[in-house]
Amino acid sequence: QLQLVESGGGLVQPGGSLRLSCAASGRIASSLTMGWFRQAPGKAREFVGAINWSGTNTVYADSVKGRFTISRDNAKNLGYLQMNSLNPEDAAVYYCAVGPRSTYYDSSYAAGYDYWGQGTQVTVSS
Q: Among residues 101, 19, 108, 49, which one has the least CA distance to residue 7?
């Protein structure tokens, strides 16, 4: 069973930065697509971005493009979401998820991911 654990969330001021991490158990995680989603109170879960299994390709939602960067270190079974220029609209619980390689080609589709982390809270407030 593959398990994902997010960390790095917290309180940040508008304009600030945070880096979230997603630790995956199991070697197989390095061969899977990793996606990031977020959910704010009262809102549907929203796609943030994804990275392919090798780390060579990424895709982002328009709302975060140019501010967020996804990366991964397969040797360490870690994924990262670097978030810059945060604003209050970015406040949410952030989740990482993994799915098969093919998931990358429709990466905004949440049902394509097989495993999810428990989420980490990001609060953006002055």
A: 19
What are the tokens at 99? Answer: 């799915």
- The answer to whether the beta carbons of residues 98 and 114 sit under 8 Å apart is yes
d(CA 108, CA 2): 21
CB 8 within 8 A of CB 120: yes
pLDDT digits (tens, 9 = 90+) for 5-44: 999 999 999 999 999 999 998 767 778 999 999 999 999 9
Phi, psi (degrees; rounded to nearest 5) at 102: -65, -20
Query: In this structure, what token pair is assigned to residue 47?
Result: 């796609």
Size of the chain in residues: 126
Q: What angle do CA 72, 22, 105 make, to 5 degrees?
A: 55
Query: Nearest to residue 84, comparing CAs of 15, 4, 5?
Result: 15
| Contact status, residue 23 vs residue 4, Cβ threshold 8 Å | yes
Cβ(66)–Cβ(81) below 8 Å: no
Q: Residue 80 above 70 pLDDT? A: yes
- The Cα–Cα gap between 40 and 38 comes to 7
